[in-house]
Amino acid sequence: MQGIPTNIKLLSFSKKGLIFSQIFSVKDFPRINEIVTNPNDKITVDLSFFIENNRIPCIEGNVKLEVALDCQRCLTEVKLQLNPVFKLAFIIHENQADELDDSFETILNADEEFSTIEFITDEVLITIPMIPMHSHDCQSYKDKSPIMEQKRENPFAVLEQLKNSNRSQ
Ligand SMILES: [Zn+2]
After folding, report:
1. 40 lies in some domain
2. Could you report the per-residue pLDDT of 100-110, keeping only the tens digit for each?
3. 78 C-alpha to center of ligand 1: Å?
4. Ligand 1: distance of its center to the CA of 149 in Å?
5. Nearest-CA neighbor of 57 among 107, 103, 122, 117?
6. Range of the domain at 63
7. How many whole angstroms from 9 Cα to the centroid of ligand 1?
8. Tens digits of per-residue pLDDT, 143-163?
9. How many domains, the chain?
10. How far apart are the C-alpha atoms of 122 and 139, rounded to whole Å?
11. 144 CA to middle of ligand 1, Å?
12. Residue 47 falls within a domain, yes or no?
């Protein structure tokens, strides 16, 4: 098994039926690293390339990672196990989708060559919840710290600032 090249060459890899497996660190993926707090944890990536119906390049992938995020209910760390799996068919005409079974997700007019890191990042980001929370019933930070209520700014003061900044432009 070989490591994944920096750039994916779609047609060439698919024709050769290449299979890759590599262990990355979270920090190798800048856009993921930006939103999580565990830069040194591992991301395992398996990719296999193949041709469907003699001409449609496809990528099947399996990614495993753990992300540490701030729970939006209690504001302490929550760790989530993610396992993005995908089976993508890269088509040139929309009607090519009819030749494929439902297990494929179709991508129209992709570049022939693209960044491996950016590609995997996109597949991982869609599996990260927008509002991460503990699966157990954690206590809301609002209930724990009533002082925060008092510190909250007068919303009209913020509105006033906005008006002023608009005026100065
Ligand atoms: Zn929580």
Report:
1. yes
2. 999 999 999 99
3. 7
4. 19
5. 107
6. 7-137
7. 42
8. 765 555 555 556 666 666 666
9. 1
10. 32
11. 12
12. yes
Q: How many CA within 13 A on the CB side of residue 25?
A: 7
User: Could you tell me if 33 and 39 are in contact, meaning their C-beta atoms sit under 8 angstroms apart?
Assistant: yes
CA separation (Å) from 116 to 5, 22, 27, 45, 59?
Answer: 7, 12, 14, 11, 12
pLDDT of residue 88: 97
Indicate whether 23 belongs to any domain.
yes
- 110: burial class by Cβ within 10 Å (0-12, 13-18, 19+)? middle
Size of the chain, expressed as the number of residues it contains: 169
pTM, full prediction: 0.80
Q: 17 to each of 49, 134, 153, how far by Cα in Å?
A: 5, 40, 59
**Distances in Å between the alpha carbon of 130 and those of 35, 51, 127?**
11, 34, 9
User: Is residue 168 included in any domain, yes or no?
Assistant: no
**E strand residue ranges, the chain:** 7-9, 19-25, 42-52, 56-70, 77-82, 85-91, 105-108, 113-115
